[in-house]
Amino acid sequence: xxxxxxxxxxxxxxxxxxxxxxxxxxxxxxxxxxxxxxxxxxxxxxxxxxxxxxxxxxxxxxxxxxxxxxxxxxxxxxxxxxxxxxxxxxxxxxxxxxxxxxxxxxxxxxxxxxxxxxxxxxxxxxxxxxxxxxxxxxxxxxxxxxxxxxxxxxxxxxxxxxxxxxxxxxxxxxxxxxxxxxxxxxxxxxxxxxxxxxxxxxxxxxxxxxxxxxxxxxxxxxxxxxxxxxxxxxxxxxxxxxxxxxxxxxxxxxxxxxxxxxxxxxxxxxxxxxxxxxxxxxxxxxxxxxxxxxxxxxxxxxxxxxxxxxxxxxxxxxxxxxxxxxxxxxxxxxxxxxxxxxxxxxxxxxxxxxxxxxxxxxxxxxx
Length: 367
Description:
Blueprint: H1 10-14, H2 16-22, H3 28-37, H4 41-63, H5 71-79, H6 83-112, H7 119-135, H8 138-163, H9 180-196, H10 215-241, H11 243-246, H12 252-255, H13 270-273, H14 275-300, H15 304-325, H16 331-337, H17 339-366
């Protein structure tokens, strides 16, 4: 963050919710949801949306405690000396969430466009780009995201108007072919991913908002918009390919774009349309990285020079972790990897919930 006193409005900050909520779903998570809940995936997403609203309420309530402080400083107020442990855990989890988004984007670019080019080159490029954006501060990040969202929404409307004619409504029947447990499992996973990562949009204190009273309302609106976009995208994919074929794709929301043609002779539109999901990933990753930078800087009380060293070391650590723990992408690994980001989002939610409860109890005790 370039300036601790940077000011943004509630609309600009909350629009990060769309990218953070949607970024994980264009690859691994959509494959898993389709694999697990079949034709009932849209139903599980609707249930997950309402669960996500409850989870969002927890994060927003936590954000409303100690409004003049950012997350790491709130935790210091709540846990005292033990806060260093909580902040360290949250920083590690945030780093893994960042790696998850960046690595999947690099895997996609390598496997779909330049298969002879090692994906590590794409990964380093993505790290550099997101580092640059995050290093510019929250004001620059929100401006970039606003422009990206307008471009992405224009692409989305164009794509799915053209795809509508390709839908075979028989592909939605029978609506429920799995047990209730599978639907609920998908709903919970959808809720966790769609509503936990948006917590990283709250990387500044509410006092840095020009109209903080509107933030919660805008947050819910952006989360709802993101859920509608995802519901339309995934439902259309099922309608076009059917559940058996859709669940086999590593990137179903990209593959369905290959069906788009203009005037029956202009094809390969997917290479432009995929910018929707690439922009999502870049902006969401930048938001997470900015949150890591801001919170650790505040906890360690780093000056400008030390902050530069810390950021450089963080990026090196991220690269090393990726080289040590991640493998080349395949469909089986995609299903296998789902458990790791689930753990990340679940622990982040539980930590925030516990912190909120303790904060409320302390406030009640003081009064």
